[in-house]
Design brief:
mainly beta; 5 domains; single chain; Immunoglobulin-like; 440 residues
């Protein structure tokens, strides 16, 4: 006599029972359970209310199999690397020896997993063996496969599900620092090298195509590096930059690294040289011709500029002169300094007749005196003499007119609005600012 449980979680009813010559028990009935136990059934899927069933309960010894754990998840593993091994224990759970026909990896991503085992062809009741599995993704994303055991146990083949996520190998580049400044470097001399460190803090190797310096003044900068063509994940290399200015003033360029990261070009800004900037205050003044006015000219150093600046006005208008007090400024590389610009205008005057440069002011006076004397002689002379004297007076008038040939004109600063350029010069370097002047 024996007993067992047959059924699922729904209402199940037995209508008949019988025993054959081998003492195997047969039960018939109906089931409303979607999880009713089926083994090698003709129809193994529950199809609706009250499916009929015929169940055999064998009295013969039966093998069984159990997996611990029933599935393996390898989590996230770097692309083109191999995970740590994980194991599954296979236990023979029936009342007969378990026969194992084959153990295989199956599934779309089966090539991403590998398996070894200690399982013999047969496993006694209660005995165990071990499956050892590793995960080696060659692509990114979620990957799945299974270990399939073909045995003589009911429900064969038995399956252990495998899963894991491949992390794509991606380089990620950082350059430190992001800019270099070469201050106080004189023309023609080379600076000490400054270092840029490249770090690959990504998950894959960085392939470098080129390291170059570009930009308007790229010829004033040079670089050497030990990066080669590949920097592995978590690896570093260094780039040394030297500045040799060819002319005075601010020089700029860009250090560029081209590689297979995203974005594909990383940059470091480069600045060097010595320079200064000029400012004027106030922005403009109004004066009457003949009056002076003043402006403050301020020089601000950059890049540690510490040289002497000489000031001048470029093409001032007529009758205007510039005076700088002091005439030069020597900067200390840090602080601004100022000079006072005095703009002097010239009063406008009318030149006397013949008073121009090279004129003969005595000629008009002499001519006038002779004309007067001639007129008196005409009045006192007779008729014949009057005609002669009249002709002489006309000649004297012509002489007097010739004496006026020196011309006349206005001298001084013309009325108008002017923009005066102020130059600050150090060797070949000139910086400018402007002052605005209105002359009435």
């Amino acid at each position: 006599m024996f007993s067992t449980y047959l059924g699922g979680t729904g209402p199940d009813i037995g209508y008949g029972i019988g025993v054959d010559a081998k003492s195997d028990v047969y039960v018939t009935g109906s089931t409303n359970s979607s999880n009713f136990l089926v083994v090698k059934a003709i129809e193994s899927i529950y199809n609706g209310a009250e499916d009929a069933f015929v169940a055999e309960v064998s009295s013969a010894p039966t093998s069984g199999v159990k997996f611990t754990p029933s599935a393996l998840d390898f989590g996230t593993v770097m692309q083109n690397t191999t995970s740590a091994a994980m194991t599954v224990t296979v236990t023979s759970t029936g009342n007969a020896t378990l026969t194992i026909h084959s153990i295989t990896l199956t599934g779309v991503n089966s090539k991403m997993f590998s398996e070894t085992n200690t399982c013999p062809g047969s496993l006694a009741n209660g005995a165990t063996c071990t499956l050892t599995v590793t995960f080696s993704p060659t692509v990114g994303g979620t990957l799945a496969a299974a270990i399939t055991l073909d045995t003589d146990a009911p429900g064969s083949p038995q399956v252990v599900n495998l899963s894991g996520t491949g992390m794509q190998m991606t380089p990620q580049v950082s350059l430190f620092p992001s800019f270099l400044t070469f201050a106080g470097q004189t023309v023609g001399s080379s600076s000490a090298p400054q270092t840029v460190t490249l770090v690959n803090n990504g998950t894959g190797p960085l392939t470098i195509t080129m390291v170059t310096i570009t930009g308007g003044n790229h010829n004033d900068f040079s670089q050497t590096n030990n990066c080669g063509t590949t920097v592995n994940a978590n690896g570093t290399c260094t780039i040394n930059v030297v500045f040799t200015p060819s002319v005075a003033g601010t020089r700029t360029a860009t250090l560029s690294v081209v590689d297979n990261a995203v974005p594909s070009t990383q940059i470091v800004s480069l600045t060097g040289g010595e320079d200064f900037t000029l400012f004027s205050a106030p922005s403009g003044e109004t004066v009457t011709a003949g009056q002076p006015t003043t402006f403050t000219i301020t020089a601000v150093p950059s890049l540690n500029f510490n040289q002497t600046i000489t000031f001048s006005c470029k093409n001032p208008p007529a009758g205007v002169t510039c005076l700088f007090t002091p005439a030069t400024l020597t900067l200390d590389g840090t602080d601004a300094a100022s000079t006072t610009l005095t703009v002097m205008t010239t009063a406008r005057t009318l030149l006397p007749v013949g008073g121009g440069r090279g004129g003969r002011p005595w000629i008009p006076w002499l001519g006038g005196a002779l004309v007067c004397a001639g007129l008196v002689a005409v009045l006192l002379a007779g008729e014949r003499e009057r005609a002669r004297f009249a002709l002489g007076v006309l000649l004297l008038l012509a002489f007097a007119a010739a004496g006026c040939g020196g011309g006349s004109g206005i001298v001084g600063t013309p009325a108008g609005s002017y923009s005066i350029t102020v130059n600050g010069t150090v060797g070949s370097l000139t910086e400018t600012t402007t002052v605005n002047l209105v002359v009435n």
